[in-house]
Amino acid sequence: MATSTNQVLALIRATHPLPCLAVSSFAGIIAFAHSQSIGRSLVIALAVLLQQFSVGLSNDWLDYKRDKAAGRTDKPAVSGQIRVSQLRAGSLIAAALAETFAIYLGLGSAIAMLFLLLFGWAYNLGMKNNWSSAIPYALGFGALPVFTSLSDSEPYWAPTWVIVVAALLGVAAHFANALPDREADKLTGVNALPHILGQRVSAIVIGVVAMLATVITVTQSPSLPNAVAIGGLAIMVLLAGSASVLSLRSVPPRMVFPLLIAAALINVVLLVLGAPQY
After folding, report:
1. Closest to 106 in 3D by CA, of 158, 47, 163, 54
2. What is the pLDDT of residue 123?
3. Which of 9, 158, 169, 276 is the most buried (most CB within 10 A)?
């Protein structure tokens, strides 16, 4: 029993639970803010959570040999806590379940979910290894509000500026996620866009892109109170500035990524408060 429990916990760790829970929660919050029922909002969040599980597990599955060569014992498969075959099976099952829930929500959401899975898997299958690494993040995060809007009981197309904001946050998250692993990545031949641009430029990108997303949010939201807009911008300056400064350390701490998740949450709150009809 203890062994089975440990394997389940290892499998959960391999999903990269923090970003999975964050992204799916954001989708559920936006859906509920658009007057969806709690039940439908939870189904939307669950579909996104399963999609994120699939992408996270496939990352550890497809990167197993690289991670082992780099001595990434923080990865459950490398440390022997779970088998690669379990990662593969879990990833495929999660993808199938995500698409099943999306089909339940409607044809539009089913198509959008296919793209969400495609973008995430494209990153893991090779785009993470070159200059195009930011593209799947931009497209994947940008497709998230589209999935949410098409999953509505009365489907609609998410506003273009909301899609742009989500895409920008995705790019910032990619840079924040890549920097702490840059030395280990060098050992395995990974040369993503943050590695190509270098640490200093990447640190600037994190701050500028995250702030740009918030500026767009507060200027485009049709009914955001001025006090809330100013407060949101102030918090974002703190979060984005901190993320950029920490990214300049010789070994950027993993705290940079949670800071970007907090920044994404601020933008979600601003979206909800400033565009209740969204």
Report:
1. 47
2. 94
3. 169
